Amino acid sequence: MTAQISAYGRLVADPQTRTTGKGTNMAMARLAVALPCNAADNGEATFWLGVIASGKQADALAKHHKGDLVSVAGNMQLNQWTGQDGGTQQGYQVIADSVLSARTVRPRGKAGQQGQATDALRRAHEQQLPTTGMKDSARRHRMTMIFS
């Protein structure tokens, strides 16, 4: 069984880049995805997602910087490791098939607002999953997972 994920959030650090022995570009990053959460004081919880991209998608990811709003899609994996305290830790990562900037820049160099990529992603998410009973904030911040 595989899990497909489509999510957007902010990069928590500049992406790290590597080149494999065969010359393939790789990029790794961490993404903070805001999810609706009724139990949280501000109504949101943060989902931490690792991102691994190769080839052209690695090049696209490497152009971004800490704080940039990025949209990613691909196969999701669960990783487990032993933490410094000796306990088992786990986290999620996506092997990205798609990396898009979810923010645009206004003409004349002014920092961008939510742009066309974000609007297109939002519309795609609303078409994919039923939204009956969901609050508007949940629609804006939802992460899509498809299991097959």
TrEMBL record:
<feature type="region of interest" description="Disordered">
    <location>
        <begin position="105"/>
        <end position="137"/>
    </location>
</feature>
<dbReference type="InterPro" id="IPR000424">
    <property type="entry name" value="Primosome_PriB/ssb"/>
</dbReference>
<protein>
    <submittedName>
        <fullName>Single stranded DNA-binding protein</fullName>
    </submittedName>
</protein>
<dbReference type="InterPro" id="IPR012340">
    <property type="entry name" value="NA-bd_OB-fold"/>
</dbReference>
<keyword id="KW-0238">DNA-binding</keyword>
<dbReference type="Pfam" id="PF00436">
    <property type="entry name" value="SSB"/>
</dbReference>
<dbReference type="GO" id="GO:0003697">
    <property type="term" value="F:single-stranded DNA binding"/>
</dbReference>
